[in-house]
Amino acid sequence: MLTLAILIPLLASLILAFVPIGEVASRWTATGAAALSLVALVIVWAGGGDGFRAVAEVPWIPTLGIAWRVGVDGMSLGLALMSALIFVAATAWPLKLHDARAYYAWMAFLAGVSIGLFVTLDLIVFYVFFDLSLVGMYFLIGRWGHGDAQHAALKFFVYTLAGSLLILIGIIVLALNMPTLTFDMRAMIDSPPLAAAGMVPGLVFLAFVIGFGIKTPVFPVHTWLPPAHVNAPGPASAILAGVLLKMGTYGLIRIPLQMMPDTFARWALPLAIVGVISILWGSIVAFAQDNLKRRIAYTSVNHMGYTVLGIAVAGSALGSETARQLAMTGAVVEMIAHGLITGALFLIAGAVWQRTGDYHLPNFGGLAGPAPRLTGAATLAAFASLGLPGLAGFVAELHIFLGAFGVYPWLAAIGLLGILITAALFLRMLRQMFFGDLPKERAGFTDLDRTETALLAGLLVLVVLIGVWPTWLLSLIDAASLIPAPGAGG
Amino acid sequence: MPIGDLAPELTVLLTAVAVLLLAMVLPQRRHGWCALLAAAGLALSMALAWAQADAHRLTFSGTFALDGATTWARFAIPGLTILCVGLAPRWFATDRRHGEFYAMLLFSTLGAMAMAGAADLMQLVMGVLLSSVTGYVLAAYHRDWAISLEAGMKYFLVGALANALLVIGVVFVMGMAGSTDYRDLAGAIPDNPVALAGLTLVLMGLFFKLGAVPAHTWVPDVAEGAPAPAAAFLTVIPKLAAAVALYRLVALTPETQALPLLVALVAAATMTVGNLCALWQDDVRRLVGWSSISQTGYALMAVAVAGAVPDALPALLAFMSVYGIANLLAFAAIVELRGRTAIADYRGLIRKHPGPAIALTLAFLSFVGIPPLAGFLGKFALFVATLEAGLAWLVVVAVANTILSLFYYLRVIGPAVFSRPEGAMATLGGTARATFWALFALLLATTFLWSPVWSALPRALLP
């Protein structure tokens, strides 16, 4: 079933690449493929179960211990569901395009590899999907972006490939230190290799943190993000922020935290500090941006900072077990919530670009008059992003900070400042965009059409649902099973 | 001396002679038949190699090793040469000496096969010299085009020096160890400065063939100036043979620390120099040339850990096979575009000629090692072997270089895919196009064939 969820979009991408069909048909092919993936994942979800479920395995290169292994636990299922949903929204999003068929082919391709990354249980297949997501995004940004898109795409590809190669080194060293050469994630989680203290585990950990840190991104390796976002088309930005960034934090939990827990615990504090710096840096720099998309992009750095803080707390082996579980829950919920919220925000930004070709905030104002639906959606998403109680962001951040106060109280206190700044910057953004006088050149501004409204509503309903009644998500994630028992495997 | 043991090599030799004779009797416009004859001879050679695939012994008084590595070379070298032959007919259609080109190509192939199987230093010298002498001619084949002549001249000058050093090195080693036979040399080369200097000089000769630092300077000129089918041949076939020969040599001295270290340092220098020089190239053929130098650097990682880990030899052979296919594909795309070479001319290529544009993209991404292209599996095998042997610093250098290399590959891919096309571009067609598509399919198929091929590759060498 999980294999189907990967193959359907990839197949759709092949069809789109080779069969000459029209623009509308292409769009619906890609959307349909993503939707079918979503259905397959929902079926797995409905099947229930504990630990890794829906497992399937086909040998690929047995002599090297590489195989096509798929299976999900609560975290990866949650992320895969969220990804599929974002892809449905992003591909269905109406867009004026050149070479539409190729665009939707890349979108479907990206859907397949992103879902594949979350559901695979083999480190090499994980790496394959990790790199393919870079290739897909490179061509999407470079070909359909605006402004200095080629340069942004190049920077994105080179920067993140650097990260992924560091991860590859780490993966190989981990596998070589297993009793028999294997890239099976379950085997490594059950008996973590490289448990002893020393140079090698530290360096491998560093390779993973830098590699995933670039993708997440955390300060100071986040500089590829703003140009990539600003120049990408709106739906591609939504995928970049909503799905691709999660690969970094997902990897951080799956590999260093679960496969080398002792080393992680030794280095948790520096990682938490990096997280807090990202929180503050992201929010402060976002506050200073006059470009709508750049501002949202920097809030991604800020929000991924919360996630990294949560992960660091969860793996710290300090404080009470409850505190660590709270932090882990928060980190995973933050990933899903941020995916939905920022996905919505970037789609909104895409809608604004489609209508005006402009991102400069001071050029806007008073849009609440001509575009009430856009205003409503943007307001709701912004409030969710700044962590208003009753919305998804609040649930996530509450858990993270409750956990963090139990382990690193000072860091948590500093991190709280970030929420304050984020609130200010979003409120200012809303004021600049939607209130005040409508500038003359914006006179013909049209509101969201029916498709756009429906798609945004779909995402935002979930944001509200998670905010009001998060139990279903929390029980799906089951954070307790994600944190390795202290001292496991020595 | 069982003549049959060298049947594949002799087939190539006899075919070369036959092609030469055929070229003399046929009128120039029918010289395409020579290509067909050459390809048939190479295919026959592969079939004969198949019959000996399980052999594991020395032959011809211990001068030639019939083992897994030789078998690999007997498939890879003629196999990829057939594809080089396929690129040539239309390219040379108006050349007065069209038919002789294939004879020269076959003699060079023979030199490469002799080099790969050599189990004796004198045999090695013979193979290197045969491969080099014919190489100079192939590089300068367009003799009324200054750039082609310059390429041939540079190749010759660097080659003459490197081959002289090789011969001097052989003399040193023979003087110190008392033999040129690998059986006698294995583990018995005395650990003194003269013998070490001799080995280093022999290595220098092979570094020239491989296009490794410091004897690498011919590669970009040959890539740019030689006729594109010859450039494809010269940047791939001799390298395959030299990689095997080098591995055999380094494996002879398992207890010497200096030699693997030297190879590791050369590997690091080669990949770095190749990539740095490729960064701002505005000429696609020179860029591919420099990139092939950096690829040699990666391959040398496996030689640096020769004997230390069991998977070093298969990693080397697998990487070289994939490199050969991808490099030929890149050149095949260029041949199909009639040798067009300025990066600016490639703008918007995908809209005019999607085939070559996609092929170049795939070949380049395979060089970078983007999965699941076969280049990733080759690089992955190299990384595993090198990390297992504990040379983590070398892997870090390789990773840094890979990132660097992505930048210049994207300098070609980016404009080719993202920009608007300007002006028309002619293509070559004919067998060149057919060969191009065959290589395209081969590169894609390698990903799926990886598992059986990997388990079939040899782990052990003679003697």
TrEMBL record, chain A:
<protein>
    <submittedName>
        <fullName>NADH dehydrogenase subunit M</fullName>
    </submittedName>
</protein>
<feature type="transmembrane region" description="Helical">
    <location>
        <begin position="102"/>
        <end position="119"/>
    </location>
</feature>
<feature type="transmembrane region" description="Helical">
    <location>
        <begin position="331"/>
        <end position="353"/>
    </location>
</feature>
<feature type="transmembrane region" description="Helical">
    <location>
        <begin position="300"/>
        <end position="319"/>
    </location>
</feature>
<feature type="transmembrane region" description="Helical">
    <location>
        <begin position="77"/>
        <end position="95"/>
    </location>
</feature>
<dbReference type="GO" id="GO:0015990">
    <property type="term" value="P:electron transport coupled proton transport"/>
</dbReference>
<comment type="function">
    <text>NDH-1 shuttles electrons from NADH, via FMN and iron-sulfur (Fe-S) centers, to quinones in the respiratory chain. The immediate electron acceptor for the enzyme in this species is believed to be ubiquinone. Couples the redox reaction to proton translocation (for every two electrons transferred, four hydrogen ions are translocated across the cytoplasmic membrane), and thus conserves the redox energy in a proton gradient.</text>
</comment>
<dbReference type="GO" id="GO:0008137">
    <property type="term" value="F:NADH dehydrogenase (ubiquinone) activity"/>
</dbReference>
<feature type="transmembrane region" description="Helical">
    <location>
        <begin position="27"/>
        <end position="47"/>
    </location>
</feature>
<feature type="transmembrane region" description="Helical">
    <location>
        <begin position="125"/>
        <end position="144"/>
    </location>
</feature>
<dbReference type="GO" id="GO:0003954">
    <property type="term" value="F:NADH dehydrogenase activity"/>
</dbReference>
<keyword id="KW-0812">Transmembrane</keyword>
<feature type="transmembrane region" description="Helical">
    <location>
        <begin position="374"/>
        <end position="395"/>
    </location>
</feature>
<dbReference type="InterPro" id="IPR001750">
    <property type="entry name" value="ND/Mrp_TM"/>
</dbReference>
<feature type="transmembrane region" description="Helical">
    <location>
        <begin position="451"/>
        <end position="472"/>
    </location>
</feature>
<dbReference type="InterPro" id="IPR003918">
    <property type="entry name" value="NADH_UbQ_OxRdtase"/>
</dbReference>
<dbReference type="InterPro" id="IPR010227">
    <property type="entry name" value="NADH_Q_OxRdtase_chainM/4"/>
</dbReference>
<feature type="transmembrane region" description="Helical">
    <location>
        <begin position="407"/>
        <end position="430"/>
    </location>
</feature>
<feature type="transmembrane region" description="Helical">
    <location>
        <begin position="156"/>
        <end position="176"/>
    </location>
</feature>
<feature type="transmembrane region" description="Helical">
    <location>
        <begin position="235"/>
        <end position="255"/>
    </location>
</feature>
<dbReference type="Pfam" id="PF00361">
    <property type="entry name" value="Proton_antipo_M"/>
</dbReference>
<dbReference type="GO" id="GO:0042773">
    <property type="term" value="P:ATP synthesis coupled electron transport"/>
</dbReference>
TrEMBL record, chain B:
<feature type="transmembrane region" description="Helical">
    <location>
        <begin position="6"/>
        <end position="26"/>
    </location>
</feature>
<protein>
    <recommendedName>
        <fullName>NADH-quinone oxidoreductase subunit N</fullName>
        <ecNumber>7.1.1.-</ecNumber>
    </recommendedName>
</protein>
<feature type="transmembrane region" description="Helical">
    <location>
        <begin position="101"/>
        <end position="118"/>
    </location>
</feature>
<feature type="domain" description="NADH:quinone oxidoreductase/Mrp antiporter transmembrane">
    <location>
        <begin position="118"/>
        <end position="404"/>
    </location>
</feature>
<keyword id="KW-1003">Cell membrane</keyword>
<keyword id="KW-0472">Membrane</keyword>
<feature type="transmembrane region" description="Helical">
    <location>
        <begin position="153"/>
        <end position="174"/>
    </location>
</feature>
<keyword id="KW-0874">Quinone</keyword>
<dbReference type="GO" id="GO:0048038">
    <property type="term" value="F:quinone binding"/>
</dbReference>
<comment type="subunit">
    <text>NDH-1 is composed of 14 different subunits. Subunits NuoA, H, J, K, L, M, N constitute the membrane sector of the complex.</text>
</comment>
<feature type="transmembrane region" description="Helical">
    <location>
        <begin position="258"/>
        <end position="280"/>
    </location>
</feature>
<comment type="function">
    <text>NDH-1 shuttles electrons from NADH, via FMN and iron-sulfur (Fe-S) centers, to quinones in the respiratory chain. The immediate electron acceptor for the enzyme in this species is believed to be ubiquinone. Couples the redox reaction to proton translocation (for every two electrons transferred, four hydrogen ions are translocated across the cytoplasmic membrane), and thus conserves the redox energy in a proton gradient.</text>
</comment>
<dbReference type="InterPro" id="IPR010096">
    <property type="entry name" value="NADH-Q_OxRdtase_suN/2"/>
</dbReference>
<feature type="transmembrane region" description="Helical">
    <location>
        <begin position="231"/>
        <end position="252"/>
    </location>
</feature>
<comment type="similarity">
    <text>Belongs to the complex I subunit 2 family.</text>
</comment>
<feature type="transmembrane region" description="Helical">
    <location>
        <begin position="391"/>
        <end position="413"/>
    </location>
</feature>
<keyword id="KW-1133">Transmembrane helix</keyword>
<feature type="transmembrane region" description="Helical">
    <location>
        <begin position="71"/>
        <end position="89"/>
    </location>
</feature>
<dbReference type="GO" id="GO:0042773">
    <property type="term" value="P:ATP synthesis coupled electron transport"/>
</dbReference>
<feature type="transmembrane region" description="Helical">
    <location>
        <begin position="287"/>
        <end position="309"/>
    </location>
</feature>
<keyword id="KW-0813">Transport</keyword>
<feature type="transmembrane region" description="Helical">
    <location>
        <begin position="434"/>
        <end position="457"/>
    </location>
</feature>
